[in-house]
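User: Show me a protein chain along with its predicted structure.
Assistant: Here is one chain, sequence first, then structure tokens.
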Amino acid sequence: MGGSAWLPLGQFYIDRVSTSYPEESISVTARNGIGKLLKEQTFDENNSFLNTTLKDNLEAILLLSGIENYFVGDPQKAWKLTFEPNTNLQSGIEEIIALLPGWQLRENTDGTVGIAPVSDSRFEQPSIYVFERDKTCFSYDVEYSDENTCAKLCVFCKEPAATVYITLPPHRWWVSPQHKTLYVAVPDGTDGAALAAYADELAKLIAISGRIESFAGIFTPQLIIGDEIELVETNGKHSKTGTVTNVRHKFGKGGFITEFTVDSSGRKGKALLKDYVSQMGDKSTQSKVVIS
């Protein structure tokens, strides 16, 4: 951008090129390593990973994909893995991560792919960005929904049998019926302390869920999914709006703009409500992957 420093957006693989005449323009679409090398490839006959530790087996999947730079945390588990041959590599990894609360599959802007806890310092950590409403960003769409709001929360485990009920305080935007209860199953083997921690974190996310807002703002290429947005309202009041769930950068002769969507049910470094429920829920993964 003129005389500014280089601004990294990521490492991408081009998969479509369009040339236009007489405008003399070229447009391209591309995907990062996860989208190109993990999502597009399947296990085929290389569908069993029988190393001693789960860490070694996850590294073997990344090696199979052709991704050159990666890191994998150590979950301290001795899981051997067998997938259906037609399962794509990304889906296989995500099914394992679903059984490791607090873990994620993510790619840094330098192309390094990580499988590790969200808090692992090797991931690019979320930041807080401040925008001024109607000056440095403009809201163009706001959606309110009570889909994930409820009056009660029940988090339970089948083996060992344990259940935690929480009666939630009145919601910020919605009045939930008295018996609207959200039931969430956690993976077998979850201990009582982890069960209580899940329930407490989920209750906090429900309290601020229900609002999604989309913005167009000044070009902010360093903005990534997971960052937190703080708005300075027109009256000067500061408000924590939520977590970025979608980013789109537009740049060229028409100008430089960053469009982003913010979900209220997320905080810096924390999963969104929908991700948290999905991660804890029983996904019946045994039908697609065998863990031994």
